[in-house]
Write a structure and sequence with these properties.
heterodimer, A: about 250 residues, alpha+beta, Alpha-Beta Plaits, 3-stranded mixed sheet, 10 helices, about 20% strand, globular, B: about 325 residues, mainly alpha, Formate dehydrogenase/DMSO reductase fold
């Protein structure tokens, strides 16, 4: 924040120097000057320290979005690590990352999948989607599936129908330990902005360059393939039909 | 193990589409090379077989990918027309248009040969030549885009290689040549013309060259994947000791590349080095072409499956 102010003050001084005082005033606060509401940027922070792996989020997601049996929009993975008595089990709730640069959008041949300009949520128009599964292949997080009833790709959309009406997503609403924090990153006073500022965050598979908008606090990123290298016992339980983690 | 979202219909499409596109591109370039087939040593016969083969595997393969669509399986049979309402930079969107154009042009091109006695300089000569100019880039485009389509996905490290498209292109041209030679070996009359032997020699040696090039591309594909670290190296391990190792090395490299290349070499060398009359028994010709086609299918099968059973390392 301080850095941002510094930059705008510097540019304002620079522009004042060239005599464009009015332009500087507008540049310093374009939203206020033009009376436009800034676009929202929805994000979620998941504090895994507070997650108890109860699957309330998974269940509420299924009921809220009428997700077909066998498919999952949101689920919780268990990571079991260590040798008795030094054993730790941690939980990794998973959902669509609503990426800044979604791979699924850039490969979609019909434009059925797109990132909403007004809030950054990645959505699917199931009347346009032809079910080619290209996006299913493209997602580095295995979030997408083909809904057998519509024949279209399906995934978490931050419960868009709730969020548009000022509610939080069903999984956030139902979370027993308040591990899920949802809100607008463009609003510095939102709980999610505060959580982002106050904590060290990680995202899943950052090397994919997708810029996830779902952030984790204290998440265990141990993979089954780390087990041999670490010389310890690691077991991943995905708790979804697809047993291998994607 | 990861789920297989793209199954046999997609694999068959990649194989049949490559074969048809390869046959079309080879046919048209053979025709254009001899000025529309009216120069001596024209290989007009080759061009004719290629033209008659080209559209049909592509149409069958395209039907198969429509069958694989989720919307089709859910009963929305005609939703695939949504593909034609948009042009965007998705490799699949570009491929859709290329594929449609190829099917139309290749049908028209086949029509110019579909007459009682097609020969250079006949009534459809100029139309045939014009369509041939379009067939070469369209055939290469259709053969190439499938590799680009798979290569565009960082989430599938086995596919995410720029050289995969080149591999698919070379394999498509090779299977196209094999399909032309196979069709001619099966259907031609027993008489062995000098002209037929000459054009068969040219085609067989071209196929040999293509297989040699394919071996080089496969080598580069594996070498670059194996010499890196992380996702790509872990993914390519599936053919270097993993589950698909024997299928890849025996089914594709040995059966589909090395053996047909060795047999072709045996028959091509005497003509190439000592200018002897080129003779390849029909049974050997059929066997070699069948092996090349099996190899082409194996390549698509292994690549499509390997890409889907491997993923990024770590979470």
């Amino acid at each position: 924040m301080n850095q941002d102010k510094g930059v705008s003050r510097r540019s304002a001084l620079k522009q004042l120097g060239t005599g464009a005082a009015a332009a500087a005033a507008v540049a310093a606060s374009p939203a206020a000057a033009l009376g436009a509401t800034p676009a929202k940027r929805y994000a979620m922070v998941i504090d895994t320290r507070k997650c108890v792996g109860c699957h309330a989020c998974s269940v509420s997601c299924k009921t809220e979005n009428d997700v077909p049996l066998g498919e999952t929009r949101s689920w919780v993975e268990y990571i079991e690590k260590g040798d008795f008595p030094e054993v730790r089990r941690s939980f990794l709730p998973r959902l669509c990352n609503q990426c800044e640069k979604p791979q699924c959008v850039s490969v979609c041949p019909t434009g059925a999948t797109y990132k909403r300009k007004e809030d950054g949520i990645v959505v699917i128009d199931s009347n346009v989607c032809i079910g080619c599964k290209y996006c299913v292949q493209a997602c580095p997080y295995g979030m997408r599936f083909i809904n057998p009833t519509t024949g279209a790709a399906d995934k978490c959309d931050f419960c868009l129908h709730r969020v548009e009406n000022g509610l939080v997503p069903a999984c956030v609403n139902t979370c027993q330990g308040k591990a899920r924090i949802f809100g607008d990153l463009n609003d510095p006073d939102s709980v999610v902005s505060k959580a982002v500022r106050a904590n060290a965050l990680t995202v899943l598979r950052p090397e994919m360059g997708t810029g996830p908008m779902v952030f984790y606090i204290d998440a265990d990123h141990t993979d089954a393939r780390d087990a041999a290298r670490l010389g310890t016992y690691v077991r991943i339980e995905t708790n979804r039909r697809q047993q291998e983690r994607v | 193990m990861h789920e297989l979202h793209w199954g046999l219909p997609v694999i068959l499409y990649l194989f049949l589409g490559g074969l048809g596109a390869g046959a079309g591109a080879v046919s048209a370039s053979v025709l254009l090379r001899s000025g529309g087939g009216d120069r001596p040593g024209s290989g007009f016969d080759i061009a004719r077989w290629g033209a008659l083969i080209a559209p049909f595997p592509v149409i069958v393969g395209t039907g198969m990918i429509v069958f694989e669509l989720g919307s089709f399986q859910a009963g929305n049979w005609f939703r695939f027309v949504n593909l034609f309402k948009v042009i965007n930079l998705s490799p699949m969107s570009i491929g859709t248009w290329l594929l449609s154009l190829f099917i139309l042009v290749s049908l028209a091109y086949a029509y110019t040969f579909f007459m009682k006695d097609p020969r250079p300089g006949d009534a459809r000569h100029s139309l045939r030549k014009m369509l041939a100019w379009a067939m070469v880039p369209l055939g290469v485009g259709v053969a190439l885009y499938t590799g680009i389509l798979l290569g565009a996905l960082p989430a599938r490290p086995f596919w995410n290689s720029p050289i995969l498209a080149l591999l698919f292109l070379v394999s498509a041209l090779s299977t196209g040549v094999a399909a032309i030679l196979l069709a001619r070996a099966i259907f031609r009359e027993a008489t062995h013309h000098q002209e037929v032997a000459r054009s068969t020699y040219l085609m067989t040696s071209s196929d040999l060259l293509l297989i040699a090039f394919e071996i080089a591309v496969v080598f580069l594909f594996i070498m670059y994947a194996h010499l890196t670290i992380g996702n790509t190296e872990a993914a390519v391990a599936v053919i270097l000791g993993g589950r698909l190792t024997s299928l890849f090395w025996l089914g594709f490299v040995a059966l589909g590349l090395a053996i047909p290349a060795a047999i072709e070499l045996k028959y091509v060398i005497p003509t190439l080095l000592y200018q002897k009359q080129y003779v390849m028994p029909r049974s050997i010709e059929i066997a070699v072409c069948t092996l090349v086609l099996i190899g082409g299918f194996m390549l698509r099968y292994i690549v499509v499956v390997a890409g889907q059973i491997t993923g990024p390392v770590g979470i």
